[in-house]
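Predicting holo structure, NAP bound.
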Amino acid sequence: MAERLGTLVFSSDFDDFATWKNALQAQLPDLQVVHASAIERPEDVRYAMVWKPPAGFFERLLGLQLIINLGAGVDALVARSDLPPGIPITRITDPQMSRMMAGYVLFAVLRHARDIPHFEQAQRRGEWAYRHPRAPDETTVAVLGLGQLGAMAAHEVQRQGFRTLGWSRTLRQIDGVQCFSGMETLDDVLGQADIVVLMLPATPHTHQLLDRNRLMRMRQGAALVNVARGSLVDQAAMVDLLRSGHIGAATLDVFTQEPLPRDDALWSLPNVLVTPHLASVAIPASSAQQIAANIVRVAQGLDPDNRVDAERGY
Ligand SMILES: NC(=O)c1ccc[n+]([C@@H]2O[C@H](COP(=O)([O-])OP(=O)(O)OC[C@H]3O[C@@H](n4cnc5c(N)ncnc54)[C@H](OP(=O)(O)O)[C@@H]3O)[C@@H](O)[C@H]2O)c1
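Done. Tokens:
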């Protein structure tokens, strides 16, 4: 089996090699797993498991059969000019990762729905600033992007009793979620929501999807949650609208430039919570099963599951 499976090379500055190696070898004891810094025989490498590998990384891997993106967002990978043509790309699709994301989204939605930013600011002033709570179904939450992560987040949001809208490219069906699709419905969805949650991939079609005009379509005082990618939003316009109060508050995990520069206005806006891109991460123990299954499929000459459509961008 070792010979049939060949070698997997690992490259990531964000993930722990030893943990991933152990998790993969627990599934496939015969798989050779090597770190990119220690490849001795590049011609034996069949699988590359990567997160933002250095330029030219793929050049020596002439026997490559599968690229595994160590995360859900493939924008950085598919935008590269040095990708070997025709090699299938898969991404992490792991229920635990979706659960972690749904947890963050739920936290952010509840934070806004329960006016927590208002109380945080009042506390700093030493003020007992009572604001009467609304029933969950009086708050409308729109989740833009209903993929592996977005669908679970929308499901969890509606389970809390919020009126939940979902928006995607093709029409999806999620119990309890009113689903919309296509650009022609976007302004309507934005205009209905008290809380807008961005869960779309970064592609040429979603670049600055929420430009100034679309941000203006949001309800006066609505909240924005971005856990997807900074490039989806015109960040300068968002800052202006957060200052004016048109956007009432935001929970932001992603930015056009990361790390967010020290002098960025977002750090000091009182109605913004900044977290450093960690809403969800790939979890070795649970993701390894799906990765191993794909390695076996490829070794058997089959197509891997969850293949990324590089043309489409996700
Ligand atoms: N902050 C973090 O820690 C973190 C962690 C992981 C992932 N992410 C981000 O989260 C994103 C979403 O993840 P996922 O796994 O849910 O993605 P996914 O499974 O690829 O699903 C993408 C969703 O977006 C929709 N979509 C794509 N392009 C669209 C367009 N032009 N107009 C309308 N809808 C469009 C898709 O529509 P269809 O259903 O019609 O295909 C699908 O519902 C990732 O791409 C990544 O950037 C962030």
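The domain at 96-274 is CATH 3.40.50.720 (Rossmann fold).
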